[in-house]
Amino acid sequence: MPRARWLPALAALLLGLASAPARCAPFLVPLGDTRVALEAPPGFSDTGFLGSPRIDELAQSLTSASNHILLFAITDADLRAFMNGDRPELRRYMIAVTPRGLARRSVSLDEFAAFVSDALHGLGKPPGEVDYAKYLDGRPAGQASLLAELRTEPEVVSVLQGTRLPSQGSSDEKPRYLLSTTTLLLLRGKALSASVYTGYGGPADLEWIKYATERWIEQLQRINRR
Question: Is this prediction's pTM over 0.70?
Answer without folding.
Answer: yes
